[in-house]
Design goal:
This protein has helices spanning 3-22, 26-47. By secondary structure, the protein is an all-alpha fold.
């Protein structure tokens, strides 16, 4: 996985964690962010 894909992945994870903590559901936020991160990573890899 190239560095740019890791940056997208980590950004999604931190956004999901922060959003989940706001709503007192950190676990759910991370699971949703994980799915979004994998999708964005796949689109990013497809683009290159």
């Amino acid at each position: 996985m190239p560095r740019s894909q890791w940056n997208v992945f980590l950004a999604c994870m931190f956004i999901g964690l922060g959003t989940g903590m706001i709503f007192d559901q950190a676990g759910a936020g991370i699971i949703i962010a994980l799915g979004i991160a994998f999708l964005l990573g796949a689109f990013h890899a497809f683009k290159e």
